[in-house]
């Protein structure tokens, strides 16, 4: 492929990104559909939100730990058939092995254990998978590769999650365990197909340079050298820019129900997510191409400012049409942001340590996601002071996060695309 000096063709983009379809599909369907429905099998209605937050937070912490650790091991792997594929294969196999536990678990504690093991398994595949772009893509095509990666992940998240929603809806309505097993079967099949395609089709570049292989040296290497200040500023920006998307995804339904008081808020929330998803999907590939032409930073800055403008529109949106238009602006901005920030991340990684650096990049995003979950108590606190005030504070937090994220990215001086 590209790093071998061979032509990097159109199919090569798919080879190094297809596993993202399965990873995004699992994450989206598990956290948004399967987990909330299955928790109701073990809990009273009054406890479901608290446990859902605690369980997903635990999964987030595991992802933050596993990705850089596996990334570091992968960077130093010298198996003859590659640094990345052995770990990808292990992760895919573990996911397929643990998936049946979602249906077999008969208690909350066992279900929680299975969920955590799925987090470990999927992130074992995730860390080396995301290093394939900097490993194998020519520098002048990484923007487009990042765009393809995001398109594939969005398609996986939307398609698999929508199918899981239908199957789990049947399970919830008819209480037939066969629907639950079909959901797990779909996820396992998606992982099997995309995993095998990746293992069989990706041809890794042989890395001859040997680095310290002892366990102690590998764990010691998890420290990111922040003397590379550009990467440090990028991590801070990535974390802050990730907050609004999670906030809006989690609290949109309650915002529409309690603050906008729109008719049929559940249906409107669903329509809004579809509009955001389609708008995001439409932009991720063009944005990746654009970063290869004009640079990463200008595109990131533009996306952050456009997203902030979308939040302003949302503040004044009280009709169905205006809400959809605001969602389209926010979706477009986030699509541009996804591709441009990932392309910038691949440029800022240290040579030969891409897996570790990109694992830490995802930690930054996960950290922002963790902070976003803490906005819930903030909303309730201010709503108790004055009805609706909490949602105004929520929107201000989203607006401020985008602005702060842009200011932080201005501190990044390097733009590796040029």
Write a brief structural summary.
With 418 residues, the chain is mainly α. It folds into two domains: 2-203, Growth Hormone, Chain: A; 229-409, Growth Hormone, Chain: A. The protein has helices at residues 10-15, 19-39, 48-75, 85-98, 100-104, 108-129, 132-136, 142-174, 177-201, 215-220, 229-241, 243-260, 265-294, 296-315, 320-348, 354-373, 375-385, 389-409.
Q: What does this molecule look like?
A:
Mean pLDDT is 81; it is low at 1-5 and 210-215. Helix 14 packs antiparallel against helix 18 (389-409). This protein has 18 helices and no strands. Helix content is 78%, strand content 0%. It folds into two domains: 2-203, Growth Hormone, Chain: A (Up-down Bundle); 229-409, Growth Hormone, Chain: A, CATH 1.20.1250.20. The chain is globular. The chain has 418 residues and is an all-alpha fold. The protein starts with 9 loop residues before the first helix and ends in a 9-residue tail after the last helix. The chain has helices spanning 10-15, 19-39, 48-75, 85-98, 100-104, 108-129, 132-136, 142-174, 177-201, 215-220, 229-241, 243-260, 265-294, 296-315, 320-348, 354-373, 375-385, 389-409.
H and E order: HHHHHHHHHHHHHHHHHH
CATH class of the largest domain: Mainly Alpha
Number of discrete helical segments: 18
The average pLDDT score comes to: 81
Count of folded domains = 2
CATH topology of the largest domain: Growth Hormone, Chain: A
Which blocks of ≥5 consecutive residues have pLDDT under 50? 1-5, 210-215
Report, as a whole number of angstroms, the end-to-end distance. 22 Å
Q: Which descriptors apply to this entry?
A:
mainly alpha, about 80% helix, disordered N terminus, Growth Hormone, Chain: A, about 425 residues
């Amino acid at each position: 492929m590209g790093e071998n000096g061979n032509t990097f063709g159109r199919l090569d983009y798919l080879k190094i990104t297809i596993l993202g379809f399965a990873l995004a599909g699992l994450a989206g369907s598990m956290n948004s559909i399967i987990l909330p429905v299955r928790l109701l099998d073990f809990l009273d209605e009054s406890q479901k939100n608290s446990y859902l937050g605690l369980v997903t937070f635990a999964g987030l912490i595991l992802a933050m730990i596993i990705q850089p650790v596996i990334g570091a091991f992968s960077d130093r792997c010298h198996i003859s058939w590659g640094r990345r594929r052995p770990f990808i294969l292990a992760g895919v196999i573990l996911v397929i092995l643990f998936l049946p536990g979602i249906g077999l678990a008969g208690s909350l504690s066992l279900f929680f254990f299975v969920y955590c093991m799925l987090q470990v398994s999927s992130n074992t595949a995730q860390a080396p998978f995301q290093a394939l772009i900097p490993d194998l893509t020519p520098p002048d095509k990484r923007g487009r590769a990042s765009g393809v990666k995001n398109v594939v992940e969005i398609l996986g998240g939307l398609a698999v999650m929508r199918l899981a929603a239908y199957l789990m809806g049947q399970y919830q309505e008819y209480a037939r365990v066969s629907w639950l097993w079909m959901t797990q079967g779909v996820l396992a099949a998606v992982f099997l197909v995309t995993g095998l395609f990746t293992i069989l089709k990706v041809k890794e570049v042989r890395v001859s340079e040997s680095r310290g292989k002892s366990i102690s040296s590998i764990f010691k290497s998890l420290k990111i050298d922040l003397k590379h200040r550009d990467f440090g500023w990028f991590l801070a920006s990535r974390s802050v820019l990730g907050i609004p998307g999670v906030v809006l995804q989690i609290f949109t339904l309650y915002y529409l129900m309690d603050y906008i008081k729109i008719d049929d808020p559940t249906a409107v929330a669903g329509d809004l997510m579809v509009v955001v998803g389609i708008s995001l999907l439409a932009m991720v590939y063009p944005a990746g191409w654009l970063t290869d032409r004009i640079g990463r930073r200008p595109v990131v800055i533009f996306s952050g400012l456009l997203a902030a403008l979308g939040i302003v529109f949302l503040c004044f949106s009280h009709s169905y049409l205006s809400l959809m238009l605001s969602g389209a602006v926010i979706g477009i901005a986030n699509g541009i942001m996804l591709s441009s920030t990932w392309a910038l991340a691949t440029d800022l990684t240290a040579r030969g340590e891409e897996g570790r650096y990109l694992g830490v990049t995802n930690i930054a995003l996960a950290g922002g996601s963790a902070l976003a979950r803490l906005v819930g108590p903030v909303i309730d606190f201010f709503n108790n002071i004055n009805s609706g005030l909490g949602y105004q504070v929520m929107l201000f937090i989203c607006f401020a996060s985008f602005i702060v994220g842009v200011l932080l990215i201005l501190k990044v001086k390097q733009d590796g695309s040029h």
